[in-house]
């Protein structure tokens, strides 16, 4: 399960995710150990610990993977403590994510070194398809259909830009270069903007109302 979480592309480049997972686990284990020593794991201490680490995990999921891992580690220890003694898990809890990170890094950089680039290329191609659909179908579509096509195109473009940024953040072999996905994405965004501007101009001329909503 840890391998799946580390490999999940939502949390940034693989190397950074692996490091954050290990650092977050170590910090979480140290923090929960300190709490156990200071409070003796009384019921009120457990409730307070769950609240604090749950808040950390909620913030970390949106902003920082290491913080999310720290929060998750604390919550796991509390839940295990409710079932029995948890102190023997300290070393195991550090070892398991370390092994998972090693598996992910080996798979990513040795077995499948082009994974990030392949993902960026796939996302860019999907964005181009969505842009072409918007360009070709929007002029004869209804207002609601145009908004759906427009949102899909801009969303795909945003996903492609994130995938391209993530691919560039991964370590590359010497003399290896990546395609200029950003230039392609920027050109596609300009196509979307031009289509939207043309639709607005035509709508204004005909006296209609088809202002685009936020993508």
What characteristics describe this protein?
mainly alpha; 215 residues; 8 helices; single chain
In short:
With 215 residues, this protein is mainly alpha-helical.
Terminal CA distance: 34 Å
**Rg calculated over all Cα atoms:** 24 Å
What is the number of E strands?
A: 0
Helix content: over 70%
The assigned structural class equals mainly alpha
In terms of DSSP E residues, the strand content is under 5%
Shape designation: elongated
The run of helices and strands is HHHHHHHH
Major β-sheet profile: none
| Unreliable parts | none
Mean pLDDT: 84
Number of helices: 8
Describe the structure.
The chain is mostly helical. It contains eight helices and no strands. The chain has helices at residues 2-7, 14-39, 43-63, 65-81, 89-111, 115-137, 143-169, 181-206. α2 (14-39) packs across α4 (65-81) and α7 packs antiparallel against α8. The chain is elongated, with a radius of gyration of 24 Å.
